Amino acid sequence: MRMHDCNWMQIEEYLRGDDRIVLPLGSTEQHAYLSLGVDAILSERVAVEAAEPLGVPVLPSLPYGLTPYFAAYPGSPTLTVHTYVAVVRELLESLHDQGFRRFVVVNGHGGNAPAAGVGAELMRARPGCQVLFHSWWNGPRVWPVVQSIDPDASHASWLERFPWTEVEGVEVPAGHKPPVDGGRLRVSDPAGVRELLGDGSYGGDYGRPEADWHAVWRAGVEEVRDLIASGWR
User: Could you state, in order of their start, the residue ranges of all structural domains in the chain?
Assistant: First the structure.
């Protein structure tokens, strides 16, 4: 259930019988021909679909993340690592103070990886707290499905193209983009990143048949649901 579909009294009642909550992490950044909100859209949606049958509340996806390398693409704001990690930590701490004890952080953006360390710090500081950090698109059950379909699939490819991440009126190219040189990408400044990427895709097919993206989405939802249900010690 979406937290924004509830009032505070319903959440207080929920906490009398359960202490789980889901925090999706996203970003606002270029995704070639797809929405700038891809990472926030997907992290929240996969979390909501996973949590719904379990009755566990899902917070709105944090829409800003760590994306300094896309600074040359308009519409791609970033936070600093220090600020971002502090925001995630403070959100989890405040929720812990209200009675939540088990947190599933569903990440939708690879650049947000530094936030994974927050969970270990919180579990050390607050005994009895449990934090699971999960990047939904490359989990152990999802990534093999992706690789079996298109080994070059990456940022802004078909892997992130769903009906809910397409932009109305924008035609996505057909065909396959060769993967960019990852080594050069990692040492490039924002202008260099844009020069290497062009439209913004890292490589892979721009589109795939509906059965392919359905297989990825189904695996993603099921994996997140299993974490929420039974990923605890």
Answer: 3-230
